[in-house]
Amino acid sequence: MIYRAALALILSSASPALAEDLQLAFPLDCTLGQDCHIQQYMDRDPTGGAEDYRCSGLTYDGHKGTDFALPDRAAMAAGVTVRAAAAGVVKGLRDGMPDGAPLSEVQGRECGNGVVIDLGAGWETQYCHLRRGSLRVQEGQEVAVGDALGQVGQSGKAAFPHLHLSLRHHGKPVDPFAPEGHSCDVEPRKTLWQDTPPYRPGGLIALGFADRVPSYDEIKAGEANRDSLPKDAPALVIYGYSYGTRKDDVLRLSLAGPKGTVIERDVVMEKPQAQAFRAIGKRAASVPWPAGRYTGRVTLLREGRVIDEKTGVLTLR
């Protein structure tokens, strides 16, 4: 009990007075590029446009935080813990809002289920879109870096499961990736992260296989992919699920089996999209597909340069 009281005193007295004293820890139990990704950064364009801290378009107009996204609703259902990125005192919270509710029902409560933590000296963090019933803190509670706050959800104004993390100083949004300003050509000299997440201007969320072109909702739910199919499958389909694509980006899809290439194609993206999927496939012939191991590859290219790539294996029996 004495130890906990002493720790609380240390936490409150160590609140950052300056940006130089503030360092954010990664706020999720996931690995970037594997089972989560940064879907949107903070908007740095003061006009009606939208520009992230690297002068790219992985944001939207007026976005005041960083969105850490899960690949699908199945990952959300499995549970991904949200952790305190900095120590402080819980200033406010909300729970009880459903995940995936129509946007028309969240007016004035766009953050959904969330937590605001007072870091001291005018600094605060806000965690939005947490899963209903998952919050593990109470108002007035002191939290340390890494303490569990809840789980990633899709409450409030959220089209997909993600954590929206905001940092503010005296009420003004601060971009932890570039608190002193941003440049198009170089990484910022200073960030407010303990370990700065690498910048990615877009990428691939998932690669998958099916015996037909799946619906977008099946992909977003995490229900589309099949890692094995029967030899008499009516078709073989490979799809790529992407984020942050721009007009004229190329999604290169290919599938090869025991007897060589089954299908391959470059698909050109017609417009910028926050998230999208593209699929190609081949119908079965009059004889069954050769049994064995099939390898799929999806590559996202921008101006001829590889942005991201994923491979996967399909087994036909």
UniProtKB/TrEMBL annotation:
Keyword Hydrolase on entry: yes
Keywords of the record: Hydrolase, Signal
Domain M23ase beta-sheet core: 62-176
Pfam families for the chain: Peptidase_M23
EC number per UniProt: 3.4.-.-
Principal EC category: hydrolase
Gene Ontology terms for molecular function: hydrolase activity
InterPro entries: Cell_wall_metabolism_enzyme, Dup_hybrid_motif, M23ase_b-sheet_dom
Signal peptide range: 1-19
Protein name (record): M23 family metallopeptidase
Organism listed in the record: Sulfitobacter faviae
